[in-house]
Design a protein that fits this description.
The chain is α+β, with helices and mostly antiparallel strands. It contains four helices and eight strands; from the N terminus they run βαβαββαβαβββ. The strands form two sheets. A four-stranded antiparallel sheet has the order 2-1-7-8. Strands 5-4-3-6 form a four-stranded antiparallel sheet. The chain starts with a strand and ends with a strand.
Amino acid sequence: MRLFIAILLSKSIIGKIHERELRLSQLCNINFVPPQNLHVTLNFIGETNRVQEIINIIDDICAPKFEYKIKGLGHFRRNDGDILWTGIEDKSAIEKIQQQLTQGLLSNGFKIESRSFKSHITLARRVNISDNNYYTAKQIFCTALTAYTKRISLMKSERKNNKMVYTEIYGKDLF
C-alpha cells in the first residue's frame, strides 16, 4: 500500500479554496487536484504493509486540537511544470506533530523523505504560468482562511480509473 499521514480539510475550507481556484483558472489552464484530495501532508511514507506500526506511531502523538491559517501561493519548480500550492501560517502546531511523527517513523526503521518539511496544500501539478499571471494569482490567495484541526489521518493513495484516490484507513482525534 502507498501511504501518507495527513491533516484533512473541512468541506467548508475546501469550498473556499475551490472559489479561489475558479478565479485562478481564469489566468491560465490549470488541472487542479480534485477537491476531495486537498490535504496537508505530514509524512509521506510510500509503499509499505506495516500499517499497524504506523497506527501505533500515530497513537503515540499527544497534541491538542488547533487552529491555523491558510494563506499565500507558492510553487515548487519541476521540469514538467510547477507544483502550485497554498501555504500555512501559524504552522508551529503542525510542525510539532510532524516532527513527532518523523521521529517515530525513523526510530521504527521507516525511510522517509530527507528534504525539509514545508507545510502546504498542493493545488495543482504540471502548471505553466507566466510571471505576470503568477503575480496576479498570488493576490487571489493573499487573504487568510482559518482552518481547525482535530484529527490526524493515515491515508492510502491508489490509482483508480486513471485518477488518484485517497482513502483514510485510520484516524486519531486530537484532545
